[in-house]
Structure to design on (371 residues):
């Protein structure tokens, strides 16, 4: 939601008061840069440390292998997941690659995935969503006017990964999540992905179908599984190396003929539309600022280069027209219906049922235990 603060931008990165919760110190440095300065050092390694990190993870993964596959790699065709698959090959691992097809794949993403699994010789299992049900869920979230429509895909991916890991008796899941290119996302720009109560509440109010085939896992199941390792062990592989998006892209292009798709998570047609149209038009949020700021702090790009990038339009005129027509047709929205959705007052996820109270209780309990 658009901030009422007087406009201000961080002197180091490109985050600004379009984030309603941003704060600045006396030198106009934002809270994200201050936090990163303290934390990013933990994700910087010497060549020897990097080698030791990878070797230790390899030993752990191979030691616990029980079946054909030693780990699971979620593969979207994007930079992070593709680089994880590349590293798995370099480590001599034999992962089961899993792709979640939510009906919005771009041709480029599919091509990237094929190039990687073919050259690496990995097996690929694709989970195809029940489209009529998922379509109804996405329509419901648009009608609800909430910020995090992508929590539907993220929730289903998480639940699917847990299920497939269990099915194939695999302990380790290699994740593309990483600190250096993903830190600094404002909490008001997203919602907690495990909030199944929120998903069900919004669907009950706005949907026409009951949730039957959509993969689910509630917050309690998720937290207990992670706490006791019942859902496997997540390894954020990229946090154990000196990771940079620019460097990873060069390797992927060279090794696989991998092609870039133009933006963070733009390997999905829906995600591109969501980040480049829905969020900025309805909420005033530009996620490019977060991603570029993270790259500035990781010393991949300069602030000047980031500002030039932000001057570029999200879409060219014809490209927006085509994507808008495609998304509305695929979700069965008329132009009038969608215009009303975009003009209606944005809503908080907490305007609908939520298990946030359980999550708050969980955090308090963990804080007490730590003390």
């Amino acid at each position: 939601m658009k901030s009422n603060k007087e406009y201000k931008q961080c002197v180091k990165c490109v985050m600004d008061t379009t984030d309603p919760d941003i704060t600045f110190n006396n030198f106009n440095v934002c809270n994200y840069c201050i936090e990163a300065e303290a934390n990013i050092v933990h994700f910087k390694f010497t060549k020897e440390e990097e080698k030791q990190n990878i070797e230790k993870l390899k030993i752990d993964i191979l030691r616990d292998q029980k079946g054909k596959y030693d780990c699971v790699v979620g593969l979207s065709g994007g930079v992070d997941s593709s680089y994880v698959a590349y590293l798995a090959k370099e480590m001599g691992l034999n992962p089961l690659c899993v792709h979640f097809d939510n009906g919005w794949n771009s041709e480029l993403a599919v091509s990237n995935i094929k190039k990687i699994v073919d050259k690496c010789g990995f097996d690929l299992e694709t989970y195809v969503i029940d489209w009529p049900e998922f379509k109804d869920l996405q329509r419901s979230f648009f009608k609800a006017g909430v910020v995090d429509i992508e929590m539907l895909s993220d929730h289903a991916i998480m639940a699917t990964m847990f299920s497939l890991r269990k099915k194939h008796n695999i302990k380790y899941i290699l994740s593309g999540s990483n600190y250096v290119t993903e830190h600094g996302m404002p909490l008001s720009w997203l919602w907690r992905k495990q909030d199944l109560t929120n998903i069900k509440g919004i669907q009950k109010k706005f949907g026409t179908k009951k949730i039957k085939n959509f993969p689910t896992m509630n917050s309690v199941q998720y937290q207990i599984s992670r706490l006791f390792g019942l859902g496997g062990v997540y390894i954020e592989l990229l946090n154990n190396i000196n990771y940079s998006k620019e460097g990873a892209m060069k390797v992927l292009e060279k090794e696989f003929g991998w092609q870039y798709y133009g933006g963070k998570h733009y390997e999905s047609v829906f995600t591109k539309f969501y980040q480049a149209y829905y969020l900025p038009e309805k909420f005033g949020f530009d996620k490019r600022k977060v991603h570029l700021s993270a790259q500035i702090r990781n010393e991949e790009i300069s602030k000047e280069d980031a500002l030039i990038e932000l001057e570029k339009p999200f879409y060219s005129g014809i490209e927006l027209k085509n994507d808008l027509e495609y998304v509305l047709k695929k979700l069965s929205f008329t132009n009038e219906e969608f215009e009303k959705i975009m003009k209606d007052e944005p809503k908080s996820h907490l305007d609908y049922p939520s298990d946030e109270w359980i999550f708050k209780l969980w955090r308090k309990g963990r804080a007490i235990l730590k003390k």
Remarks:
- The chain has one domain: 44-358.
- The radius of gyration is 21 Å.
